[in-house]
């Protein structure tokens, strides 16, 4: 739908009766999300924001943090 530099707006989704959403095709294509991929969902109560991140991206991020901590020792 639109983007500004590295930020994207992919439209809106509806939550189904079972609490499921469909990630828009453009978002799946942009972030290479395939059937069977695991995603991590974070949220913030104060402003009711949700963030969805591919699990492998979070794992790589966590490993980088651990490596950085090791290098500080």
Automatic annotation (TrEMBL):
Cited Pfam families: MazE_antitoxin
Domain SpoVT-AbrB as annotated: residue spans: 13-60
Q: What superkingdom heads the lineage?
A: Archaea
* GO molecular function terms attached to this record: DNA binding
Which InterPro entries does UniProt cross-reference here?
A: Repressor-like_regulatory, SpoVT-AbrB_dom, SpoVT-AbrB_sf
Cross-referenced PANTHER family: REPRESSOR-LIKE PROTEIN SSO7C3
Q: Specify the protein name.
A: AbrB family transcriptional regulator
Q: Which organism is it from?
A: Methanobacterium bryantii
């Amino acid at each position: 739908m639109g983007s500004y530099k590295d930020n994207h707006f992919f439209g809106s989704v509806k939550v189904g009766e079972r609490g499921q959403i469909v990630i828009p095709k453009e978002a799946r294509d942009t972030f290479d999300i395939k059937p069977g991929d695991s995603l991590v969902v974070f949220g913030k109560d104060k402003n009711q924001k949700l963030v969805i991140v591919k699990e492998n991206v979070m794992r790589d991020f966590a490993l980088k943090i651990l490596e950085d901590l090791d290098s500080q020792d």
